[in-house]
Amino acid sequence: MSHEKRNRPKTSKYKKSGAKSEFFNGSLLGILPFFIEMLLEQKRLKKDYPDAYREALKISKDTAKEVTMLIALFNVVVRKDSREDAYAFVRGIFQKVAVHSMTAFYQIDELVQCEGDPIENFTKFNVAWFAAMQEPGRS
């Protein structure tokens, strides 16, 4: 091994873009072990933490599935890289999805059309929304 290769800082396998990363071997077949690990980790989480899974199911079946998937994703990436790299990887996914989901989630178009300042409307919306969730009989 050359001197330059030994002294090069280790880079995360997940910092590279998607299917081109070392981890996925640049092919769809290379991503198969990742998905298998994800499925096995989701199964393990449900088995090891049944109470947490039941609580998530109380919210909705989709929520339980998505939360389990995200935790499994994080755990699989931690096994391959560091905790910091796993956090950065999952955070990057959230940031990319948020661009599309947050406008629908917070009804930004409607808030802009409301009378008054959109930021104040956003604040009022959040206060009312969280207050409604705390009312008895709501989940």
Topology:
Elements: H1 3-7, H2 28-48, H3 50-59, H4 61-80, H5 83-105, H6 108-113, H7 118-134
Helix pairs in contact: 2-4, 3-4, 4-5
Provide structural commentary.
73% of the residues lie in helices and 0% in strands. It has 139 residues and is mostly helical. The protein has a domain of 69 residues. The longest helix is centred in the last third of the chain and has 23 residues. The radius of gyration is 21 Å and the shape is extended. The N and C termini lie far apart (59 Å).
The rounded distance between the terminal residues' Cα atoms is 59 Å
Helix/strand class: mainly alpha
Average pLDDT for all residues: 77
The value of Rg in angstroms is 21 Å
- The total of beta strands comes to 0
Indicate the proportion of strand residues: under 5%
* Model regions low in confidence, pLDDT < 50 over at least 5 residues: 1-9, 12-21
SSE string: HHHHHHH
Note the total helix count. 7
Key phrases:
single chain, 139 residues, mainly alpha, 7 helices, 0% strand, disordered N terminus
Summarize the structure.
The protein has 139 residues and is mainly alpha-helical.
